[in-house]
Fold ATP-dependent 6-phosphofructokinase.
Amino acid sequence: MQSEAADPRIDAAAAESHEPQSPTGRQIIDFELRNSLPRVRATSPSSADPPPGPAAASLVMGTDPGSTLKIVKGEFGYVLEDVPHLTDYLSDLPTYPNPIKENPAYSVVKQFFVNQDDTVPKKVVVQKDSPRGIHFRRAGPRQRVYFESDDVNACIVTCGGLCPGLNTVIREIICGLSYMYGVDKVLGIEGGYRGFYARNTIQLTPKSVNDIHKRGGTILSTSRGGHDTLKIVDNIQDRGINQVYIIGGDGTQKGAAAIFEEIRRRRLKVAVAGIPKTIDNDIAVIDKSFGFDTAVEEAQRAINAAHVEAESVENGIGVVKLMGRYSGFIAMYATLASRDVDCCLIPESPFYLEGKGGLYEYIEKRLKENGHMVIVVAEGAGQDLIIESMKSMDHEDASGNKLLLDVGLWLSQGIKNYFTSRQKMTINLKYIDPTYMIRAIPSNASDNVYCTLLAQSAVHGAMAGYTGFTVGLVNGRQTYIPFDRVTEKRNKVVITDRMWARLLSSTNQPSFLSSKDVEEANIREEQPKQTSGEVKCMENGST
Ligand SMILES: Nc1ncnc2c1ncn2[C@@H]1O[C@H](COP(=O)(O)OP(=O)(O)OP(=O)(O)O)[C@@H](O)[C@H]1O
Ligand SMILES: O=P(O)(O)OC[C@H]1O[C@](O)(CO)[C@@H](O)[C@@H]1O
Ligand SMILES: [Mg+2]
């Protein structure tokens, strides 16, 4: 471990830094960032160069000790949860006209640049007297950029599990940097976070990545564990990297936040941009994560197969396991899309097997009615029941994620035992586990477009000097979201929400919930989430 005093680069950088000058005739925007850095003022060097913060005179900055968020308050309860900018800790950075202006493809676009004040509301369903609520900065190209094309030295890393679309995002970061901004130095870090200090790097060009979106997986390979913030930032510094693109799930975004904090502490001119990846769709705030649509579509093939098998025999049961460690979105959407599913089990909704209203009773009823049935089970469902029945130990992977027991096998065995031992009826059960086959395919057409927009938004943000942000779709608009916002909690299926009710009504399955379960779920959802703007919000509200 390297101490601050032992690193000469930190002292040198700190000695060079000084309080920003008061800008002439420009609004000074004060804000307070959480930890070690002193209070700073974001300024804009020239009138042709809009400041990174909102320019509207009515906005005042709020301060929130203990919060990592950069909060801007406006009228009528308007709150902007802004993302950091290089000028927050580096003063007098020169800016340059955005080279996109010279690009023939984009020069005809009527309003190509995003208005500096554009923000996107988190909540779109409002009442006439409700406050305007939380907003995020709108993503997109800015008039001026904080990097000269020739000076950019970017790198890309992929971490965590696989997900359809990883290669598309990699490709579009490289092509976006090159075609829109004329950047030609992009390094691929191999093997996830530990690749920064333990693996090789590869030079990436539009030509070398031309075809990669047609392949599953990640050409950079990935890993879990191995995040050593100081070693990673040392490596970034040693290589002269000044833009870091980090693609990964909730764990990866936490790692990206740690890297950003260390970079900021060392006062380096390095932009850190996260692109959220998770096939489980469990990242908070954003509408959905890339690869999710592809996964739901591919899951249909497994469900169809299970259905064909089940309806072709007497008392046929098809059990399909889908991914979803903590969140059952893939299972829920795949079930809703298919209409062949009779029962969907997810981690968020407790269920029980035996007795009145239990799963076995429902299976029996369904077989008597229809002669066959299909069950979709998310991998994280029923883990408490399995642990109870197998007296198993808790295990974790290299990143500290819970290692799951195979709910599909366990459930299939349980159903077989139930019907055999009680001589209820002869059943014919087929268990299909397509999880890794689904995760390993290339992204479908709509995910490819989505990946492209995410990658381009990340590139625009980094070029414009924003840092410490995750790019994401909020209510259909590309935004920059502070890391903390996407890592503080997981996106989960809300079982008291209308979407889960739609599922229950489509499958006709029992909810398996006691009134106590419903009460607990309601309490979980109703707990207000205080921000410094004192705006209460509910994640994943009804659609
Ligand atoms: N709290 C944390 N602080 C720093 N690094 C972290 C943290 N949590 C996870 N990481 C690092 O992020 C990387 C990926 O984490 P993880 O394996 O949990 O996958 P993920 O990004 O959550 O993706 P997935 O959706 O596949 O779970 C790992 O290298 C891990 O060490
Ligand atoms: O086997 P691995 O690579 O650890 O990944 C499995 C996990 O990854 C995820 O797909 C999330 O990326 C989970 O659904 C699943 O539990
Ligand atoms: Mg994760």
Q: What stands out?
A: The CA atoms of residues 229 and 259 lie 6 Å apart.
